[in-house]
Amino acid sequence: ILLTVFPVTGNGNDEVGKGMVWRDITKEHEVDKLKNDLISMVSHEFKTPITSIRGSVETLLREDADWEEDFKREMLTGIHEDIEHVQELVNDWLDISRIEAKAISLDKEPVQPHAIITSAIRKLPKHFASNAKIESIVDDSLPFIYGDRVRLGQVLLNLFTNAIRYNDDSPHIEISAHSDEAYVHISVADNGIGINERHLGKIFDRFYCVDNERERRLGGTGLGLTICKGIIEAHNGMIKVQSSEGIGSIFTISIPKYRSAGAEYEKI
Ligand code: ADP
After folding, report:
1. Which ligand 1 atom is at minimum distance from the Cα of 204?
2. CB 159 within 8 A of CB 124
3. What's the rounded mean pLDDT across residues 14-23?
4. How far is the CA of 54 from the centre of ligand 1 (A)?
5. Lowest pLDDT segment from 28-37, 73-82, 116-125, 232-241
6. What is the sign of the dihedral through the CA atoms of 200, 204, 205 and 206?
7. Got the DSSP string for 56-78?
8. Which residues contact 234 (CB under 8 A, 6 or more apart)?
9. Fewer Cβ atoms within 10 Å of its own Cβ: the N or the C terminal residue of the chain?
10. Ligand 1 contact, 220 CB (< 6 A)
C-alpha cells in the first residue's frame, strides 16, 4: 500500500488540513518484479550457453582447422545441449508469464489419471532415466479427473525429472494415487536428497534454487515447480510437498474429479 499525504489549502492558500491517498500498488510491484526477473534471466542464464555456443562455433570455423570427425561431433553435441537449455528457458518463461497474467489456456476434458501417468513416464528421456527405478502402483480404476492432459502431463514429467535429478545414488520413484469426494490425489515419492525445512516454503517461488551450483550443473532453471503450481492452481487444484533431508520427498497434486452431468444431477 502506498500512502501519500498532501497539504490541503483554504481560500487564502493557508494550509487547513492534510489529505491522504491510499493506493494498492501490489499489482504494479508484481509487474516490476516480473520485468526485473526477466532482465536478470536474460543477462545471467542466457549468457553462459550463448558464450559457449559462440566459442564452439568459432573453433569449428577456424580457417586452418582440420578437425577429426569425433571432435566435430562432440562440439556439435555440446552446441545442441546449450541450444536445448536456452529453448527450455524461453518456454518456461512464456509459461510463467501466461500463468502470472492468468492467461494460461486449458483444454479441459475428462482424463483417466492412469493414462497421463503412463504417458509421462514414457516421455522421460532414456539416457536420463536409465538408472532410475520408476514404479507406478496406479491402475485404471481411479475416477476421471477434469483437466488438460498436455498440461497435467507436463506437471508430472517435471515432478519425475526432479525426483531423478535430485538424487545422489540410484533413484527410486514410486507413484501412487487415491481419490476422495472431490479430488484425485497423485503422489510422487522419491528416495533423493530431500529438502531442508527452511527451503520447503520457498521451492515453488520463481527462480528459487536450494543449491545454485548443483542446479546449474544439473541443468535446472528454478522455474519448474513455479510452473507446476500455476498449472495445478489453474485447474482449481493443489500441490503439496513433504520432505526429509537425506531421506526423500513426496510431491502430491490434487485435481478435481470429473463430474458428469448425470452425477451433478444426482447430487442435486
Ligand atoms: P529446477 O528447474 O531448478 O529443478 P524447480 O522449480 O523444479 O527448479 O525446483 C526448485 C528447487 O526445489 C530446486 O532447487 C531443488 O533443489 C528442489 N527440489 C525440487 N524437487 C526436488 C526433489 N524431488 N528432491 C529434492 N529437491 C527438490
Report:
1. 6
2. no
3. 82
4. 29
5. 28-37
6. positive
7. HHHHHT-TT----HHHHHHHHHH
8. 99, 102, 104, 106, 151
9. C
10. yes
Output the CA 265–ligand 1 centroid distance in Å.
42
Phi, psi of 96 (to 5 degrees): -60, -45
Please report where in the chains the cell 497539504 appears, as a residue: 7
Residue 225, ligand 1, Cβ within 6 A: yes
The angle subtended at Cα 14 by Cα 8 and Cα 19, nearest 5°, is 10
- Cell reading at 167: 538424487
Q: Is residue 160 lining ligand 1, measured as CB closer than 6 Å?
A: no
**Under 8 Å between Cβ of 159 and 175:** no
Interface predicted TM-score of the whole assembly (ipTM), two decimals: 0.98
- Burial class for 265, CB neighbours closer than 10 Å (0-12, 13-18, 19+): exposed
The residue type at 261? A
Q: Which three cell numbers stand for residue 200?
A: 520447503
List, in sequence order, every residue forming a beta bridge with 183; answer none if it has no partner.
256
Ligand 1 center from residue 18 Cα (angstroms): 51
- Greatest alpha-carbon pair distance for the chain in Å reads 89
Burial class (CB in 10 A: 0-12, 13-18, 19+), 235: buried
Q: For residues 104 and 234, is the Cβ–Cβ distance under 8 A?
A: yes
Paired sense of beta strands 15-23 and 2-9, if any: antiparallel
pTM, two decimals, is 0.82
Question: What do you get for the CA distance between the two ends of the chain, in Å?
Answer: 44
Higher pLDDT among residues 110 and 263, named by residue: 110
**Count of residues in the chain:** 268
Cα gap 144→113, rounded to integer Å: 7
